[in-house]
Specification:
About 15% of the residues lie in helices and about 35% in strands. It is an alpha+beta fold.
Amino acid sequence: MKVFKATRSDMTCTMGNGTFRYQLGIPAVADGSKCGMTGLHACEYVLDCTGYYGLGGGNRFFLAEAAGDIAEDGVDTRIACTELTMIQELANREIAAHAVLYMVQHPKRDGWKANGASLEVAADRAEQRIMPSIPMLNMPACRQIRAAMAAK
């Protein structure tokens, strides 16, 4: 299952009473999955990650693949799983592209609006309140957005 994961600048996250370090391309494994309690956490909607690790401040965002036992609890789009592989680090513009793709694919779903210290997404506008720190890269998500909009 395609998901998104945010981490601190050193690719660490809080896990239970300790810290876990992820590695790009190497599956991370946990014994169980219960949202907010055990397992490896990620979100189906990339902007939900900003509720846990904000944009800027050195935090990093990744496209990931969740596998194994996957649990959800209805708190935003977060999931917990027993296997999580970081596939690709995302630049700010790629984060925005994946957010728009989610909105196009789920136009009636509640919860895609966001308002925080560095980001606002509303039905009629979106604003990033920090300067993009990573230049625009090749963005397959943009092609997916165009295809999804053309199909509607």
